[in-house]
Amino acid sequence: MTPNDSRFFRNLYESKSEYVQRRDPGSFDAQQVLLEARLFKVPNLVAVLPPDFKYESVVEIGCATGELLAEFPPPWNSGNVKIRKTGFDISPSNIEAARSRFPDIEFRTDDFRQSHVTADIAILSDVLEHVPDDVSFLGAAGHIARITLVNLPLEDNWLNYNRNYGPQDISGHLRRYSLVEALQLLAASGLEVQGWRRVWIHETECESQRRALRHRMQGAEYSGQLASRCLKAAVYSAARIARPLGRRLFASNFFASATLSARDLGR
Question: Tens digit of pLDDT for each residue in 152-187?
């Protein structure tokens, strides 16, 4: 079984510790993921949608345990329209946890490319860095929806400089992206950007809420021994005060909305 085999990645994300831990809804990991979806990911994804874009159906590809999809709101101008939501993930255990937690949403383990499911919006959040062929995968997503929303980590920062990317990575990231590479990925996939933004989470209120959650559930705002926690607190404080330094130290997130380019509409 090779890293290009779907079974390899299914087994990988069945056993990755961060996914195993977040399947327990009462765990710190699950609560942190929900907090990030609610305060960071969903608001920034909605913000890059074209103004007045109306939608009645949303598909999330790589939904994991379903928090982002559950938090994704109906459009402000929808009236009483109920949004149809469908989540796809390669891990059966993730899908089992998502179904238990969010029974009003349809969750599936089959490949979205063979599912014949279509939607107004397709979301890929923190997914493409896990996919061997990110270009064709994103292009396929673009063909099932009127608009595609993408969230990518941009890890061309100092703290990720020597990171060993690949299936052995602690989060399963196969590669890093810069802002230029993220925009090039969309173009190579046959998508035209409608709106985008770059956001550093440590500059947002979500970061303060994450620290408060860790303190409440684990007894300290930062992980590690006392000396490590003090160092981390000092670095984060410096990063907040000296913004250019913080933006070189820490990864950011790229949020974009895109539609199929004219040349790809007929494919």
Answer: 999 999 999 999 999 889 889 999 999 999 999 999
Beta strands 57-61 and 84-88, pairing class: parallel
Please provide the CATH number assigned to the domain covering 6-200+252-264. Answer: 3.40.50.150
pLDDT in tens, 69-85: 999 999 976 667 789 99
C-alpha 40/C-alpha 68 separation (Å) is 10
Q: What is the pTM of this model?
A: 0.94
Residue 13 backbone zone (phi > 0: left; psi -120 to 50: alpha; other: beta): alpha
d(CA 266, CA 208): 46
Cα–Cα distance, 129 to 34 (Å, whole number):
21
**Cα–Cα distance measured from residue 186 to residue 80, given in angstroms and rounded to the nearest whole number:** 33
Those residues whose C-beta lies under 8 Å from the C-beta of residue 173, and which sit 6 or more positions away, are 129, 130, 153, 155, 163, 165
Six-digit token string for 82 = 């109920």
Residue 264 — very low, low, confident or very high, per pLDDT cuts 50/70/90?
low
Calpha distance 136→189 (Å, rounded): 6
Backbone angles phi, psi at 171, to 5 degrees: -110, 5
Dump the DSSP string for 164-219: --STTSTT-------HHHHHHHHHHTTEEEEEEEEE-GGGSHHHHHHHHHHHHHHS
Identify the CA nearest to 149 among candidates 172, 116, 118, 126: 126
- Domain boundary assignment for the chain: 6-200+252-264, 206-241
Amino acid 96 reads E
At 6, which amino acid appears? S
CA distance 57 to 100: 21
Q: Distance (Å, rounded) from C-alpha 124 to C-alpha 213?
A: 26
